[in-house]
Amino acid sequence: MSLKILCAGGSKEEKEAVETAVRAGIGARPAGEAWTVSLVKVGRQWSVTLDGPEKSSPRATFIAGEGRLRDAISQSLAQRGAGISARPAVPSGGATAVSGPAGEQRNGYTCQKCGKGFVVSYEVEEGEGEETVPAACPYCWQIENVKVGITAAVNNDYRVDKT
Asked: What is the pLDDT of residues 72-130, one digit of tens each?
């Protein structure tokens, strides 16, 4: 496997730890596969972009907190069907999708900390996949993992409202 890791931000020690976490998160892959992982340190989190071996495979973009990089990469690959066994990434409040083929999507969640409901809204294109992103509960500011369309995730174009 060919793996290119691009890392911006953080100290030399952090970059070494990030490279180790990325390699562990991707795991053993077939020799012919070529992966590119781009990371940008934003505060205490990493913005991650995964590009897989096939040009037709969708790009995965997500945010991972410090210390969760390996798990976040494994979960993203499992969602993409890359054949890596990992815990399935599920939103931490139990999503109830109010779906439609295209247009505005509204997913309802319950905060794990305060137990109150909130809604995540975003625009979705027909046939578009989903990514897990962080969202703050509008009542207690607990960070929950929620799902939004890939375009909304990449552009950080989603809204969290009280129910």
From this structure: 888 888 776 643 332 233 444 433 343 445 788 888 888 888 999 999 989 888 777 88
- Could you tell me the CA-to-CA distances from 16 to 1, 27, 133, 160 in Å, in that order? 19, 17, 25, 35
Q: For the chain, how many structural domains are there in total?
A: 2
- Nearest CA to 66 out of 111, 113, 21 is that of 21
> Are 129 and 89 spatial neighbours (Cβ–Cβ below 8 Å)?
no
- Reading the block at residue 139, the tokens are 């009542």
How many CB atoms within 10 Å of residue 124? 20
Q: Say whether both 132 and 72 belong to one domain.
A: no
104 and 63 in one domain?
Answer: no
Place of tokens 């931490």: 92
Domain end residue (candidates: 28, 48, 79) = 79
